[in-house]
Task: structure prediction
Amino acid sequence: MLRDEQFAVDERIKILDHIPQVNRGHTVFNFPLLEKINAVELESQDEYCFRACVAYPFLEGIIMSRLLSNLLAVLVAFGAISSMAQGEAPTPASARGPLQLDFEGDAAGKSPAEFSVSRTGRGAEGQWVVLEVKDAPSGTKVLVQASDDGTNYRFPVCVNDGFRAKDVDVSVKFKPITGRVDQAAGIVWRFLDVDNYYIVRANALENNVVLYKVEKGRRSDLKPKGTGREAYGKDVEVPGGKWSTLRVVARGNTFEVHLNDRKLFEVEDETFEGAGKAGLWTKADSVTQFDDLKAVSLDKQ
Ligand SMILES: [Ca+2]
Result:
């Protein structure tokens, strides 16, 4: 990863160790480009160093020359250290911050940064682009899968490159726009490659939510706990043309599925027991908008 290129192991400086006021959940600096960066959001202290240097290149030289006293002097001179709540435990160096993406920083008409696009099955590749809309849940931008190829066994996938976990809590806001074959919106997790992952999706044409595994390219639904062989996810209203929230919480072999803050069902499965990426998914000719993708690792560090 880029930050690893930027900071060789022996060059890493644990800035946060030298700023005892820094506590979990509070803004670290008042620098304009960093004021939304939150200690608990960051994967590690190295991540913080990297982001600080991207936003303020002059910090890099200070960090790389290990002149921490100079760095702190700079920060103090800028009045940079914000007031912090007292009494909270510092964020552990190993804490893995959540992925929170509102797509506001991405260029409209282009694919979002740090995502990889692929397609399970057949048919056209997906077209995942950032779009400006009037009713975005956050800001003015959303991510849309815009290709309407109607190949039935076609699953465009867009996964984040920087996030990796086994146990996860992933949620996303979605709005089905069009689709005659399907109007689907899905979350993938423990994504190993385009042919091996878990997926839960809501479908506005079928009005149901179903959890599947895709193993060696073959998709098969996993039955909710307490249901029989004939079950197929859960029937529930999935409104087309409106924003809803889909969420999955995966712990060990148990996956909880939520729609619009309502828990729908649980599934148990042991097919994929290791860590993987997380991201978004659609099916066939579904044109679907997404916003506010959040993925939190629940793995112990
Ligand atoms: Ca947004």
Notes: The helical segments are 2-6, 45-55, 58-64, 68-77. The CA atoms of residues 47 and 300 lie 18 Å apart.
